[in-house]
Protein 1
Amino acid sequence: MTNSKDFLGKFVDVIIDKPLGSRHSEKYPHQIYPVNYGYVPNTISGDDEELDCYILGIFEPLKTFRGECIAIIHRTNDNDDKLIVVPEGRNYSNDEIRALTEFQERFFESEIIRNDVDFIFNKSIPELSVSNLENSVVFYKMLGFKVEYERPENKFVFLSMGDIQFMLQELSDNEKWSLSPLTYPFGNGINFQLKVDSVDKIYLKLKEHNYPIFFDIEENWYRQDDKFWGNKEFLVQDPDGFLLRFFEDLGEKEVI
């Protein structure tokens, strides 16, 4: 079987079998491809067929394409990978990749894999001062975060889950960022609203570990002008009391 990671950061030749604007199949005639979709010849993916590719950044139907693989969508419940291929010099964030491939990938659970050198930092990244870095890392890994990099000599880690990013650093005697002594809960007065694909998935992980939930799951609708925007959400405190508000988008409805 072809190792899809071998294509990361490299240029690949793709044969397009579903051009932009084409229908998925006779079985799903209403599913239209908003991007070009094809495969890398002479490869074998987890579904025993050629390795598939989404072509982003081209806005006309194609027959073939040569571009750079900037990421891989790895389906965790389907044993299949999809290459994200773009014109040279273009890049897309994980959120942009999710949005452009949602027409098909919404039916699967997946993670986006990139080269470390291609990691895209958010423009706003909270850094949390924690009392015990090891305990905090265990908690965030339980939720599904992964350690992107760390500096053990500074008791510092950089975590991500999709496009959610946090920096954690253990408190020290010469903590230059502290304005005054911290007391539990450290995050009093702030909550971090974190958009995820599945609130239930994270909620169940916490329940499996008997971790206390600060505010149970509920649906809330927030008015913005003449529309309501819906969130399915719950709140949990991390080991130092920082309040995390995980939510799933429920769409919109008109104000009556």
Note: The first strand starts at residue 11 and ends at 18.
Protein 2
Amino acid sequence: MPNLKRQKTVQEMEEPVVNLDVKYNTVDTEPDVQRPLGREYPKARSQMPEKQLFEFAEYRPQEAEKIGYSNYSYWKSVWQNFLKNKAAVVMGCVFVLLFVFTFVASAIGKYDIHMAPDPQNRAYIEPNAEYWFGTNGIGQDYWAQVWYATRASILLAVLVSFGQVTLGVLIGLVWGYVRKLDRFFTELYNLIDNIPTIIYMTLIALMVGKSMLTMGIAMVGFGWLATARNVRNLVFMYRDREYNLASRCLGTKLHRILFRNIFPYLVSVIILRLALAIPGTIAYETTLTYLGLMDIMLPSLGNLLSAARAVFPRAAYTLWFPAAIVSIITITFYLVGNAFSDACDPRNHV
């Protein structure tokens, strides 16, 4: 019995001792650590005084409100998802550099775009050290012509595309949400869509004029159809959701319902439509110029491509340079548009 009692005493001594320091609010399980305050209790926390078990938690209203907030940012998440697509990021940088270079090219070029024509001595000179892109049919420097045309076509395409998408989104929101106007917009859509757009453009060019401003406004006036139809179908999906019904019952105004409740769900579709409209506008401008429906005194990509087709076997370089730039713009906006559209989709945010 004395041996057993001794073993039990040794076992109790080897057990860890819990030391709760009131001053530092720490629990120590090492038996040899000396603390200036507090008592030692081997096991039973139930035997500790209430002063050592509990501590008053101070309430701060500002910190309490922060608990309900989140650091999530929609556009920050969009940007992070977009950067994951390396191909789209690279092509986006290529397009930005291409557009910036259109302003730099005129400064580093040897000749101005308004160089006097010389069709006899300088017509269709192959690219060389003197003329980096060669010359055109009237002896002007093709380097200056190509880069000026690129800048003009990009600006025209961006402005027209923004106009088409903006008008299409506004009409599509009203068309899809207001039931009384559905019949009117449907008949208007059928009236414009069932007749080829080139007929409208021809009539406008003959009756009003062939200037870039006139044809640009005409392209906006007839280019909103596809965007409006797409937006209208999407609005039908969200119009009778519970939160929209609650907003109508509370008397929320129409424009707040459209732009606060429905419009955020359409961002990815709008971005994609805009990205595809820009190269589409350049291609459409090329077609109009080729058909003689746009009278552009200064060069554009469509104007250069139209002139190059007639002399392609003789001066193939006149087609290579503008065609390569149009291809780069088209591929860039296709990749960037799809990547940014996927990044804007809330379902892809984690």
Note: Residues 1-33, 35-39 have pLDDT under 50 and may be disordered.
Protein 3
Amino acid sequence: MDKFWEEYSEDLMDGYFRLVDNKKSLKSKYIVEYPEELARKLASGSSNKLSQIWKFYDHVLRIQDNIKKGDSLEFHKSELCELLPAVNYAKQRKTVTWEFERFIKSNVQCIYDEEDLKAFMKHFQSLIAYLPRQNQK
């Protein structure tokens, strides 16, 4: 297994946060280091369509917006889980690569509460910010 994926998976299992002054703080790796490397991996030989990546981002954003309106994550858990077969289907259609599929699957399985969802959204936003716009469809 690629060293990056090994470290990334282990870190995700440990959670998005670290304790600073007895408060949860998002690990900066999820804003800079991991998104930058993920973007490189997604861009190489890219059959990842930017429109597909945005489709997944928008799906998670809708869930987060509903939670902000008062719904619980538990209420929307099935919608979050819809990402798993959707990314599998997108990979079969060759509109995303196995790396993006792994990104989605690894993160969805590590979302246990609303704070985790917010952390994932920030992580996903950072990934999109690092993706190269040229040669993307």
Note: Residues 50-68 form the longest helix (19 residues).
Protein 4
Amino acid sequence: MKSKKKIMSVVKAFISAVLLFISLFPIYWLVAMAIRPTEEMKGHIPLLPQSLTAEHFLQLFTDEGFGQAIVNSLQTTFSSLALSLIVGICAAYILARRRFRFGLKKPVTYWILLVRVLPPVAFTIPLYTMFSKIGILNTKLPVTLACVLINVPLIIWFLISFFQDLPEEVEESAKVDGATEWQLFVKIVLPLVAPGIAAVAMLSFMYAWNEYTYTVIFTRSPSNNTVPLALSLLNTEDNLTNFGLVAAGGVVSVIPITLFVIFAQNYLISGLSSGAVKE
């Protein structure tokens, strides 16, 4: 029996190692392509880089203006994330706790879900017409508002269940102790749903950071390009064979979202450990 258990554990470890290798190899290859010279990427490419270079990263920021694209992506992503969380959290709490007349609660929630289910391109023409009349095209504001439109339904649907699972006795006891609605919401409710907020914030951040369709349509000047659009512009006829430059752009574009996920994950873990309700 012990020998069988050891064999099974060895087999499981081997399978896990193979799956881990398959999952991490594209990331390794991306980094390896970014730090090896262009001469090594002609013909047979060795698995391990024979020499290291930073020329692709230098070219990325000096010749391609990738730094401005990162700044633009950070501005649009964090501004849309903040607006989406403010609107989505408040709307989810209202839908979870308040009663609606004439049975409007279900139609409203299904309408919100419909906005998320439809493909983003379905909103392109209405948004373009509206932004054109307002006069904000060719700026970063339309991209921010479009990301808010897509992320708010996700936040609402994700957090409604978190608010509904909270025992109403906790809120009632806080009201008895003299807490106002704002104090109840900020100091009692939000800390208890912190894991859900952290999870949905990660999803919203990833969508806003990787947004490409609205950026192509609503922005026209290179000074407003975001990271996904800047990456696509690297694949021109001149840079089509410069795989190192494209790989360097991919490595740089992954760093901010990785740091944000690590930062939000800490709040996710702390919320799971400290958000338990004791009776």
Note: Residues 273-279 have pLDDT under 50 and may be disordered.
